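Q: What residues go here?
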């Protein structure tokens, strides 16, 4: 059974997504092995964490992310929308995020772009990853295959992966053509047969985004190496750790890490 818990945008079920509060909450839980976050660029080229292409949903700002300078973005409230206890939580630069998680979590870093929305974002992200010496701790993923090709042309050693909400027949061929060995896929499109085929082909599979224990268990049973991406690491713990620990105490089976 899987032991791979990926905190989606940090522990975003409780703290505001893609903020340091969500990152720190994820790191407080020893069963969280991975974290997934999103990166975009400010108008002046600063890479920072945010999911949407506009500021409207998760900050008190308005308008497109790409039209605001970092000096403006850094002053926004990125927490009150989630809860008053997170009022004045700020947006986080990619550099500060990587500094916080280095040596503690593996990182699935989604490059948020489409149709060349952020020219040069791939180089900027790679430069930042290199500055922190985290080339072996980060996987760069994207829905945009053009961005993945750009990454490969800049640095063929950094791992890359496709994000997809579907399962086309040639999906594994697409991954091979991109030189990618990571697949971030909606759990709705996973089957035991496909999961086994992908893993056999050397592809690391992450299923997103699952917040209920029943579905987590069903997907995990497809293959022990599937990463479970969730907004609720606490539900993951209850499903895979707490219940097993309780059963072990009563002698039903033993639980141990690989």
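A:
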């Amino acid at each position: 059974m899987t032991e791979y818990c990926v905190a989606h945008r940090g522990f975003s079920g409780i703290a505001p997504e893609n903020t340091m509060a969500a990152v720190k909450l994820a790191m407080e839980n020893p069963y969280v092995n991975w974290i997934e976050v999103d990166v975009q660029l400010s108008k002046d080229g600063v890479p920072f964490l945010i999911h949407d292409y506009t500021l409207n949903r998760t900050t008190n700002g308005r308008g497109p992310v790409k039209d605001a300078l970092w000096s403006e973005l850094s002053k926004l409230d990125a927490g009150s929308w989630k809860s008053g206890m997170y009022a004045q939580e700020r947006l986080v630069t990619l550099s500060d995020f990587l500094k916080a998680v280095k040596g503690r979590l593996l990182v699935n870093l989604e490059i948020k772009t489409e149709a060349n929305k952020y020219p040069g974002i791939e180089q900027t992200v790679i430069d930042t990853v290199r500055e922190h010496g985290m080339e072996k701790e980060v996987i760069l993923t994207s829905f945009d295959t053009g961005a993945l090709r750009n990454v490969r042309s800049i640095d063929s050693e950094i791992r890359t992966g496709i994000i997809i909400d579907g399962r086309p027949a040639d999906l594994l061929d697409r991954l091979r053509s991109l030189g990618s060995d990571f697949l971030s896929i909606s759990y709705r499109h996973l089957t035991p047969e496909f999961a086994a085929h992908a893993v056999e082909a050397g592809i690391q599979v992450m299923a997103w985004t699952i917040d209920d224990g029943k579905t987590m268990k069903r997907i995990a049973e497809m293959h022990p190496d599937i990463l479970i991406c969730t907004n609720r690491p606490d539900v993951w713990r209850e499903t895979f750790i707490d219940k097993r620990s309780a059963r072990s105490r009563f002698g039903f089976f033993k639980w141990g890490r690989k």
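A: Context that may help when evaluating the design: The two ends are 10 Å apart (CA to CA). Strands lie at 5-8, 32-41, 47-49, 106-111, 138-142, 159-164, 182-186, 204-208, 227-230.
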